[in-house]
Model the fold of this input.
Amino acid sequence: MDVAKNLVRGLLIAATSVILVACGGSEEAKKTVKSESKVDVIHWKMVTTWPKNFPGLGTGAEGLAKSITEMSNGRLTVKVYAAGELVPALEVFDAVSRGTAQMGHGGAFYWKGKVPASQFFSAVPFGFTAQEMNSWLHYGGGLPLWEEIYAPFNLIPMAAGNTGVQMGGWFNKEINSLEDFKGLKMRLPGLGGEVLKKVGGIPVNLPGGEIFTSLQTGAIDATEWVGPYNDLAFGLYKAAKYNYFPGWHEPGSTMEALYNKEAFDALPKDLQLIVRAATRQANAVMLDEFTARNNAALETLVNDHQVILKRFPDEVLSALKKASIETLEEVAAADPMSQKVYDSFSAFNRKVRAWHQVSERAYINARELN
Amino acid sequence: MDVAKNLVRGLLIAATSVILVACGGSEEAKKTVKSESKVDVIHWKMVTTWPKNFPGLGTGAEGLAKSITEMSNGRLTVKVYAAGELVPALEVFDAVSRGTAQMGHGGAFYWKGKVPASQFFSAVPFGFTAQEMNSWLHYGGGLPLWEEIYAPFNLIPMAAGNTGVQMGGWFNKEINSLEDFKGLKMRLPGLGGEVLKKVGGIPVNLPGGEIFTSLQTGAIDATEWVGPYNDLAFGLYKAAKYNYFPGWHEPGSTMEALYNKEAFDALPKDLQLIVRAATRQANAVMLDEFTARNNAALETLVNDHQVILKRFPDEVLSALKKASIETLEEVAAADPMSQKVYDSFSAFNRKVRAWHQVSERAYINARELN
Done:
């Protein structure tokens, strides 16, 4: 195959030399030729952690594949595999690392067993909003650190989608004080689960397919999922009465695209830039979609399905915030790389929050004044 | 030129046919050839409303030009002209409309004299945040309306940058009540100026180059500009004592890229998609940059230049909000297209604000609890 490609390329260069002569070597012709001699056709596989056609997250990954294929005019095609089609969801990281697939789409929290510091790049309790996360990654030193922790695995990460602030979860009893978390069995994976443990709850890790039944039978007391758009489709309102906000545990969950380093480095520069821009586009598109679609779903949940929308009390949020900071400090203390990432994360957090006190927060409150 | 191009293309197709034969028509070769025969070299000019190297806004436009040039591997090159280099700032719209330049970068508020409805696509007092604006444009029907109002001018608009929530302006006296706006001469262009008039102030429209001196000599009492990152560089702290927040008049100012319709439509599909993705990328990059850089500038203003940071009182913000809604309704009532855009804008506004009550706003307040 490579031999055949090289043969084609060699012949093209020879052929285009003839054209140069034919055209008298005009500036226009020279530039045209320069592009011609670089074309190859490359086929990539994208493995994902999402079920087929999963709204927002899975469809976002499919949109990214389509963009790369079309922007490259078919020079780089990307075929998407849902979770389990080529590899199981939780093997995406390894599959891209070893080159079984050239790229993947998922969330960095899934890889905490391999790279504890990855947890700072997906969903951080009381962490960044989507806007803040993107700013930290692209202008605050976040992305270079993410690249550094994935480099030993032969992987290049990029932000590839964001849900915005999620909901706080589905409960069958009211949360009136911190006491109500004591002994509460809640499906809450990742760092949020660690925080729950600190306030006396029992975090349970369940795959998506088991959540609904577990909640309905009382095997768990509560669950979080994403936000109204996904939660409505998932039917969680049939198994729980109260939908709480805000999603303190996932205030701006970032999805990731993973690229196999050799595969990415082997691309010509223009295709690398196309991949980067397509990923950045996918990152923005997902947030735009969730922001636009959550309210209609929320209205359906409240008006058609009699879901009771409730805010966690201040006392509870304060305690969760305190427990979140403790949890993050423990994660940071466990290994030097996590500490390095956390130091960057928290320094940026202090600064961007100070700025958002006088901008985003001040405005979003001012416009609610009567 | 076109004849020469067609000649080159014709010869290329002929030449690649020979290759097909030479390679025995393998699948690989066929695909390679398909891409080869479409290459052209196109040179575009981008005119902008920004001074050369203007931080954030002008550099954002330059980044966009570079992305398009590099992602297309030089098949589509874009040369940037600062305001006045090819055409004056306020002639960008016309220059791209008639094809003097193939694209432009600026803000839709500049064209209100030609297209009153354009004002809903840049800076709207008490309007959308950056996240909300992007969601309305790309998933809420905003962009199709923007395209519709620019179509008669042979122009295709796209969002190409956002400043986030701006600051409320620079003042030499405190604003303690609405009375303090009476007779206040403030440089405040666009819809914000109309609102100021309603609360008794005197809006003044000054080009950037005259603001500093006017403020220093007392010819104006106050001015707005952008936010700390630009305001610090502009030296406004030398001419005013108080910096007020929030920027109620520009809560998520959107920059625009304008494309000449014939020039855009003449691009092959892959280049069109490259232009779209590069613009979407530029849209995100600018917000990331402002979000990351404003706080350091704000700290310098307060700590090194003794600027006094103040929030507008609730009473003032309430009155400005009321006056803003009146202003928008008047703009809408003036022509059917403005009404159509405003109807879409305000319907989306109700929905996204309802969602952000339980997500972005609820979270950004919860994390400030002790």
About this structure: Chain A has a mean pLDDT of 91. The longest strand of chain A covers residues 155-162. The CA atoms of residues 160 and 283 of chain A lie 4 Å apart. Chain A touches chain B through 106 residues (CB under 8 Å).
